[in-house]
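Dear colleague,

Thank you for sharing your sequence with our group. We've completed the structure prediction you requested, and as agreed, I am returning the results in plain text so they can be pasted directly into your records. Please verify that the sequence below matches your submission; if there's any discrepancy, let me know and we will rerun it promptly.
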Amino acid sequence: MLQQLNPVERAVLLLREVFAFEYAEIGEMIGKGETNCRKIHSRAKSKLHPDEQIPLHEPEQSEKYVQSFLKAAHTGQFHEFVNLLAEDAVLYSDGGGKVRSAVRPIHSRNHIAQFITGLYQKTAALSASVQIDRIPINGESGAVITVDGQPFTIVAFQIQESRIQSLYLMRNPGKTAAYGIPL
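Please find the predicted structure tokens below.
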């Protein structure tokens, strides 16, 4: 499959997917910019899996999952939300190298449950002014967690067969800044 890619695409794909390098680091290695590396990575993935362009949400279902997440995040009781996860669900976190986040994807419902429960406990201890709200993300429902009025984490879901297949936590301040004003 990798033979379908040119040498630069192969290098970017392997450095990102296998060795989990950040785009800026990859750019330094191959002499390209960070943004260029992101695009090369995206194109390489689409060449390898052209028919796997799965939308983040099924619009008619996404609100149910967001509401379950909001309820869990407000109460700290994640059991009902975790039951909406597929058994082989994956959690992706992006801190952009600027804030702490999970370096590698977290696989399985049980590991995700442990991670989000721990994240909830840490976030609750940060400040008395933690707020969680529903927001639109690319035309779909998602959530923003703000701490002391600043966006802390953006949450989005990929839903397949009535289960959350992927959970995305965006923590990169350069990307979360656009969501600074909750609805």
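Summary note from our side: Helices lie at 7-17, 23-30, 34-48, 59-75, 79-82, 109-126, 173-176.

Kind regards,
the structure core
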